[in-house]
Write a structure and sequence with these properties.
The structure is a homodimer. Among the domains of chain A are: about 15-255, ANL, N-terminal domain (Rossmann fold), CATH 3.40.50.12780; about 435-540, GMP Synthetase, Chain A, domain 3 (2-Layer Sandwich). Chain A has about 550 residues and is of the alpha/beta class. In chain A, helix 1 (about 15-25) crosses helix 3 and helix 2 (about 45-60) packs across helix 3. Chain A has helices at about 15-25, 45-60, 75-90, 100-110, 125-130, 160-165, 200-215, 240-245, 260-270, 280-290, 310-320, 350-360, 450-455, 490-500, 530-535; strands at about 30-35, 40-45, 70, 90-95, 115-120, 140, 160, 180-185, 195-200, 225-230, 250-255, 275, 300-305, 325-330, 340, 365, 370-375, 390-395, 415-425, 430-435, 440, 445, 460-470, 475-485, 510-515. In chain A, helix 11 (about 310-320) links the parallel strand 13 and strand 14. In chain A, the strands form five sheets. In chain A, strands 2-1-11-10-12-13-14-15-16 form a nine-stranded mixed sheet, with helices on both faces. Chain A is about 30% helix and about 25% strand. The first copy, chain A, is built from 15 helices and 25 strands. The interface between A and B is large, with 82 and 82 residues.
């Protein structure tokens, strides 16, 4: 019979994170770009004090544990205070993606049953558009001082954040409760159907934040200054707003200014050492730095996720700017980082190009997360770096079901990610495709991403996309779409000949369609569903 | 009403740690010094396979979850396998300190009800001495091959580790169970009374190992090679044997060779980057390096705990050898590290001497642990760096009671450490004295340690100790013991005059006693209880 351990039985709670920051790193700075422009700065001790004021204010508004509080906001200090006040009170911090279509925004606010919604003045037009359709929202709280409040015609219950918290005490006794209670809620921005909510527990967030702090992941300590570009409305900004006070790192929040010039300026001014975000952000940052002949004085590392970062970009950061890229993978359903790459001691002796090729993959699962790949029958595939299968994940911060969902998405206790991946013997995982985009031909799989990358290697090609088209003999065959660079005249035969030299013969597309542009969605991703609708007939 | 989070509900288990190492860092090396001399090397994948073999073997011996398995062993790979096989099976890994008096060893083996005891051949004489008095131990398993088995006359049930595990499968399905179950047991080596057992839970060990891996603590990642000198029989070697496979660091285990020359040689040969241990180890390592004009090629950081590391030693490591000291504090009751120091980004600009003075303190509590200091009435004292009080700790890996203990040692949910400390506004804690050694005089406290350090600043003094002696007016007054350096003739008046210039007037001892040597115990600590017995009368 098992013996019970004799250790203190204390819950892992979000409130402890900011109180740890206040008690042990009380003088460490948080720097935040206000929505109306200037920089605001204070300390973790002051952040905790204002989070407690907000907790008191929300309580006085009648909010109780279990209630949801929405946010439509940038990465800034008031959003940070809300993270702690809401989750710390046992309420659910529902971060809304402002890039969603207003109809989707209305859907998620109503589905989550947000009692109040916090927003930045940037999003006043959005609030104006959705407020009338969100009857359960009792108050829309604009995160600003009275002087910077926007006028929102037709919306009656708009409150000013600073006026709201001003009269309240800095003392608040955070409730103690089950660490498996819900702390935060984020909806997937699925391209089809309604968004689905993922309800993160207090425990999941705390463990994931500890994981993100580890040296093989983002690596945070009192020696570091972190600027998370990844939005706080998007899978908890990889839990970095928790990891920073937990580990004593200075936190720099960029607000609405995410262009290359603004980010560079802020990184230099605040001596930022580490950052995190999607590849497109780093592309624009790099362009700004290159065009202006600039250097990074302190930036030495960045976490990258959301989509694959090209090896060329990884090597530019490393070779030209001494910035180490940590390439990771995660999704709304995984709370934050699930896998991340890091060059090991033995790999440090490899030529730079080989190191960058390793980093171009999505790395190893972090402690607390397990990964495997399976075939269409659910059988586990070998970790040989060749076999491609659907990536399955399991762990302490992986969802078990969607919010108010009817059926569990899990298969034998694992979450099927919808991504097609390979895993090498050493554990390194590489995303090869989305499951719905992979082309199944003659019992084998062709990665649409790999084929697109090969096509984009042709000097006349500006953009490329590949879809699978039904085929009577092979089940599916690839169809290639090409957008030519301005003034280029490359034709079908030349493209196919180019690919024949670069990919397996059976990968070469059956046909090529030339378009002026590829159809893209709200987040800049190519909409293959649109291509399939128009071109997805049957090859003869 | 709180909402339940929708995250997978999986326990934090020790077995997952080695399986993570096997799956994600399967090719990372473990290097281990055999008790009979040579180096042994394998990988985390092989370590996990052998841990599973041992788990099968222990099961076949009839051991069930909840049973205790003792160890009397060095830091080596078989001890590591036992850590995982025993705790992973839901049994309790009871690490015995071989430096205990045989009577105490008998006491703890019987108190823990060890079913089997694993031992290194070094400790065969100890096994011979205690075996007859430990009737519940069914087998004494020597951790060696058949060729290196010692002969232990009079002990019948001695098994050979390699023969024991050889026939068993590398497959073992680790049981899943409550993460609050006991995983490991370690007894305090109290100088009075019987040793008291601390039963660590699976959860406490996993969380503490994650904490130790963090960059502000020991900092472990695939880029690092760690050599834990801190013994695996002593508070889980700070959980580093768990933290290493968790984070992908190469692990080097020094076996019985802990002298400066052996450690240096191993650090160089295996490209060790980080280590951890008590100050005396680093003193002997430094002496070896200095005397032989050597350099550290790869060693860049070391964790230090157990007792205070002098600032002079800290600065030698930093200034002369580019080795950063991370000074921490913990005790058997805190599983592993509770506080640790790390120079922050802003402090990196301070002069070296100021940085070393910061590191000479015991640092800040790590995330998951809270600290406070209290006066004799239990009232919380200010964090002003001046007020001295008993250090109280609370957190996820702090004990709640001793094994089979009758009463809880906790006070209002906090564990009273028996250490006297100050805490600065920034959260930095410094141990000033043991509670039983502090001198309470006229309502104020004098740190015996500070007074001893001041006395040892006199060039003629080889060693010093201070105790409190009852005083009719002042409650207690300090009495100083001095051991002169050979050939020195310093007398009472000169010592007191020397101290008068260096400490507050009311700190100056009332008398000085000259001794040829101070009484020391088994671990080299001065036995103030003996001094009190002989000299602790009453000042008039």
């Amino acid at each position: 019979m098992l013996q019970p351990g004799l250790m203190m039985d204390r819950p892992l709670l979000v409130s402890d994170v900011i109180e740890h920051g206040a008690a042990q790193f009380g003088d460490v700075e948080v720097v935040s770009r206000e929505t109306h422009g200037p920089l605001f700065r204070y300390t973790y001790a002051q952040c905790a004090a204002r989070a407690r004021k907000l907790a008191n204010a929300l309580k006085q508004l009648g909010l109780e544990p279990g209630k949801a509080v929405g946010s439509i906001a940038w990465n800034n200090h008031r959003h940070l205070e809300a993270y702690y006040a809401v989750s710390g009170s046992g309420m659910v911090m529902h971060t809304c993606n402002p890039r969603l279509h207003p109809q989707q925004l209305i859907y998620i606010i109503n589905h989550a049953e947000d009692s109040v919604v916090l927003f930045d003045s940037t999003f006043a037009p959005l609030v104006k558009a959705v407020a009338a359709h969100c009857p359960k929202v009792n108050a829309w709280i604009c995160m600003s001082e009275a002087a910077n409040m926007p006028v929102i015609e037709g919306v009656a219950n708009v409150l000013c954040y600073e006026d709201l918290i001003a009269p309240h005490s800095e003392q608040f006794v955070w409730p103690q409760f089950d660490e498996r209670s819900g702390a935060a809620l984020c909806y997937t921005s699925g391209t089809t159907g309604n968004p689905k909510g993922v309800l993160y527990s207090q425990r999941a967030i705390v463990l994931s934040a500890m994981s993100a702090s580890m040296p093989g992941s983002v690596s945070l300590s009192p020696k570091e200054t972190i600027l998370p570009v990844v939005p706080m409305f998007h899978i908890n900004a990889w839990c970095l707003p928790y990891a920073a006070p937990m580990s004593g790192a200075k936190l720099v929040l960029p607000g609405p200014r995410l262009d290359g010039a603004s980010l560079y300026e802020l990184m230099e001014a605040e001596k930022v050492t580490v950052s995190a975000g999607v590849p497109t952000i780093w592309l624009s940052l790099l362009q700004h730095v290159e065009q202006n002949g600039l250097r990074f004085s302190t930036m030495r590392r960045t976490g990258v996720g959301g989509s694959a970062m090209p090896a060329a970009l990884i090597s530019k950061f490393a070779d030209n700017y001494d910035v180490e890229v940590r390439h990771g993978w995660g999704m709304t359903e995984t709370t934050a980082v699930a896998t991340i790459g890091c060059i090991s001691a033995t790999q440090m002796n490899l030529p730079a190009a080989e190191q960058h090729a390793i980093i171009a993959k999505q790395g190893k699962s972090v402690y607390g997360i397990e990964i495997k790949i399976v075939d269409e029958n659910g059988a586990t595939l070998p970790r040989d770096g060749v076999a491609q299968g659907e990536l399955m994940v399991r762990g302490h911060w992986i969802l078990t079901g969607y919010y108010k969902g009817e059926s569990s998405p899990l298969v034998d206790g694992w979450f099927p990610t919808g991504d097609i991946a390979t895993i090498e013997p050493s554990g390194i995982m590489q995303i090869r495709d989305r499951a719905k985009d992979v082309i199944k031909t003659g019992g084998e799989w062709i990665s649409s991403i790999d084929l697109e990358n090969a096509a984009m290697g042709h000097p006349a090609v500006a953009n490329a996309a590949v879809i699978g088209v039904k085929h009577p003999k092979w089940d599916e065959r690839p169809l290639l779409f090409i957008v030519r660079k301005p003034g280029q005249t490359v034709e079908r035969e030349e493209i196919l000949a180019f690919l024949t030299e670069r990919v397996a013969k059976w990968w070469v597309p059956d046909d090529v369609v030339f378009l002026d542009a590829l159809p893209v969605g709200g987040t800049g991703k190519v909409q293959k569903a649109d291509l399939r609708k128009e071109y997805g007939g049957v090859f003869s």
